[in-house]
Design brief:
The chain is α/β, with parallel strands linked by helices. The chain contains six helices and 37 strands. The strands form five sheets. It has a twelve-stranded mixed beta sheet, with helices on one face.
Length: 354
């Protein structure tokens, strides 16, 4: 990706809280990953594991720590790295993030515009500093706050509230009565407020739909990934608290509560009426059965299954989940089952033949 408006190398060093060794006249044209970099690129080395890529890299600039720099210079018998620029920082990864944040903060944002093709309902209040993109449909009795951005082809149902500074990317659907806080990001394809999956089974085996009369409330500084679905509550609200970060392709079922500053990786599935504690971390493809709770500060590793409430903080793995170390020991024993079976078979034969 081509990144424009990159600061000069001296300003980059200041932004990164670092200092320069080598070529101070280098002109940076782009930022790139070290293994794919080309001349004119600036990259970073955050771990000794990536040092192997340096010796094949075509990048001209590197953000790295003192130890990595010393390793490079000590290996340079011919002096061929003197034309490179090295920005030495205590923590190269965090310094690179500071640079990204600086560049991102200087990218012009969409604001103060309503596209002529947008359809706006009755009694809807849109801030004069908001941006409404092409073909957006906004229902009746909505409120769109200052500096909010709603990009092309979004559908906002009746009675929705969108807080200030919230950015909704193209093709997002908010069902009626959805409430979104401030400085929240919702990525393309997300569906917020669809009906929960609630049905009564009839005597003949058919199903009768239960009306879903609640809504979804999403807090401040939340990020919701692409194609993620959050269902409305049966009654009351499905709640996503402040600071929650949801990856792509996640499903949060009806009447759930996701505690503040929790983070879920892709393909997590949360069944109905689950209450997730604060600062929970769920790896990819974790599944939770309905009507359970988790404590604060719980970590559940990828592809685990949660069948009952998690009452204590900790790190868990497996299906059903267990304390991580216990789960690893069980997995280690399972891998030895063929050998253990043969050992038991041999013992059995010896006993029978004795």
């Amino acid at each position: 990706m081509k990144i424009t408006d990159i600061p000069n190398i001296e300003n980059i060093a200041k932004i990164c809280n670092g200092f320069i060794k080598g070529n101070i006249n280098l002109e940076i044209k782009n930022l790139n990953r070290i293994e794919y970099s080309v001349p004119g690129d600036l990259t970073f080395i955050s771990s000794p594991n990536y040092l192997k890529y340096f010796f094949k890299s075509q990048a001209d600039g590197f953000i790295l720590n003192q130890e990595t720099y010393d390793s490079i210079i000590n290996s340079d018998q011919s002096g061929k790295y003197t034309e490179k620029c090295f920005i030495i920082c205590a923590d190269p990864y965090k310094s690179f993030i500071l640079l990204l944040q600086y560049i991102n903060s200087n990218i012009p944002i969409l604001s103060s515009f309503i596209h002529p093709s947008a359809i706006i309902g009755q009694n809807t209040n849109i801030s004069s500093s908001a941006f409404i993109g092409p073909n957006v449909v906004i229902g009746d009795n909505c409120s769109i706050a200052d500096k909010s951005i709603i990009e092309a082809n979004c559908v906002i149902g009746n009675d929705c509230i969108i807080g200030s500074g919230t950015h909704i990317f193209p093709l997002v659907s908010l069902y009626y009565d959805t409430i979104i806080g401030t400085d929240t990001i919702i990525h393309s394809g997300a569906v917020i407020g669809a009906d929960g999956f609630s049905n009564i089974e009839n005597s003949d085996g058919s199903y009768q739909k239960i009306p879903q009369l609640g809504n979804v409330i999403i807090g401040n500084n939340v990020e919701i990934g692409a194609n993620t679905c959050i269902d409305r509550s049966l009654i009351g609200s499905t709640l996503i608290e402040d600071g929650v970060k949801l990856d792509n392709l996640i499903h949060i079922a009806h009447s759930c509560l996701i505690g503040e500053n929790s983070a879920f990786a892709a393909q997590v599935g949360v069944a109905g009426s689950v209450k997730i504690g604060k600062r929970n971390r769920l790896g990819g493809q974790v599944g939770l059965a309905g009507h359970l709770d988790t404590a604060d500060d719980v970590i559940i590793m990828a592809q685990s299954g949660v069948a009952k409430s998690v009452e204590n903080k900790g790190i868990y793995f497996g299906s059903p989940i267990k304390d991580r170390m216990r789960a690893f020991k069980i997995e280690a024993v399972i891998r030895q089952l063929p050998e253990l079976f043969n050992d038991i078979k041999d013992l059995k034969n010896k006993i029978l033949n004795s």
